[in-house]
Amino acid sequence: MLVYEFICNGTLSKHLHVEGPRSLPWDDRLRIAIETVKSLAYLHSTISIPIIHRDVKSANILLDDTLTAKVADFGSSRYIPMEKSGVITSAQGTKGYWDPMYFYTGRLTEKSDVYSFGVVLVELLTRKKPFSYSSSEGEGLVVHFVTLFEEGNLNPILDSQAIEEGGKEVDKVATIAVACIKLSGEDRPTMRQVELALEGIRASEEYTLDNLVDKKVKDKHVMIDIPYIKDKRSNADSTRQYSMEEEFMLSARYPR
């Protein structure tokens, strides 16, 4: 039997897609995005055998009593051996969040998670549902978002609350989102690079699209203190001593 932590505030999707003009404050949205990308970057580049989640979406991001993000549902996840750049497998995921290249070729890489996370960023910016949105021209959310971004006219699709509270940060997050949802996986940044870029926004640093993709990361093997786990050097939570890797192994051994 597995005992899971009770997550009292449900999913990010539930908090975003509410009736009325107000939803999560912008500061919470940006923080949740950073907490989520830290978790995914940990899976991709810090543990001994990289793991691709394969179903990154707002419904799989849980929020606890302090609205701290916890990435959930590893039922579709796959190990990727370090010596391989990807694996061929049947496409799996959720409509609206699928990496189109993975869907059509069956080649799974960590950039598929990057694409799905980019869709989550678009969702945070717009409060539109990726699986059901359709513009007046019949475009899905991702295509319509990229079209408006290239035209320099994102305001019609952005959430008014995000514009009001986020200011210039909204434009920066939009730039990162567009980098993540590029059609070719090779043109997308790594999850670690996305993490650095989002952290840079919170720290009021400037990140351009070019250095988002090209920036070299030298500390991939540093243990990251992310919301999903507690640093074992800290006594802040002595009851939570499992790493994310150990948690995943338990889930694989005793599936739900």
Kindly describe this structure:
- With 256 residues, this protein is mainly alpha-helical.
- The protein has one domain: Transferase(Phosphotransferase), domain 1 (Orthogonal Bundle).
- 41% of the residues lie in helices and 5% in strands.
- The chain contains 10 helices and 6 strands; from the N terminus they run H-H-E-E-E-E-E-H-E-H-H-H-H-H-H-H.
- The strands form 3 sheets. The protein has a two-stranded antiparallel sheet with strand order 1-4.
- A hairpin with a 5-residue loop joins strand 2 and strand 3.
- Helix 2 runs antiparallel to helix 4 (110-126) and helix 4 packs antiparallel against helix 7.
Give a quick set of tags describing it.
256 residues, mainly alpha, Transferase(Phosphotransferase), domain 1, two-stranded antiparallel sheet, 6 strands, 5% strand, disordered C terminus
Helices and strands in order:
Blueprint: H1 12-16, H2 26-45, E1 51-52, E2 61-63, E3 69-71, E4 78-79, E5 87-88, H3 100-105, E6 107-108, H4 110-126, H5 141-150, H6 160-166, H7 168-180, H8 191-202, H9 209-214, H10 244-253
Antiparallel strand pairs: 1-4, 2-3, 5-6
Helix pairs in contact: 2-4, 2-8, 4-7, 7-8
Domain Protein kinase: 1-208
Keywords: ATP-binding, Nucleotide-binding
Organism: Hordeum vulgare subsp. vulgare (Domesticated barley)
